[in-house]
Amino acid sequence: EVKEKFPVLNGLLNNAGTFDGDYTGKRVVTAEGNEYSLAVNVLAPFLLSSLLMENVKASGAGRLIITSSMSAGYHQGLKDLQLEQGYSAHHAYSLSKLCDIMIIK
Asked: What pLDDT score does 20 carry?
């Protein structure tokens, strides 16, 4: 719907940030099988950006901005993006924000 309604976008700002999906401290998995913080903070903005990239490029000088956090950096999780081993809400958030940085570079 957005793609058709706004054929030219001057910019797209992705500012997703969830920390501990259901506030229990337990690992939450989406219906698609992805760890919740990864799904909300990384996969959803990546999908949206991919779907709207033509519209951003159509402006001729459009920009894609993805926010991250000073908490980014749980690089140990890169071997287990779904955090199936040793889950913590802080690790999930930190890993998701590291992935955001990696996507935009």
From this structure: 82
* φ/ψ (deg, to 5) at 20: 70, 80
As a whole number of angstroms, the distance between CA 91 and CA 6 comes to 37
Phi, psi of 38 (to 5 degrees): -65, -45
- Dist CA 68 CA 43 (whole Å): 14
Q: How far apart are CA 105 and CA 103, in angstroms?
A: 6
Number of C-beta neighbours around residue 7 at 10 A: 10
**What Rg do the C-alpha atoms of the chain give, in angstroms?**
15
Q: pTM of the predicted model, to two decimals?
A: 0.89
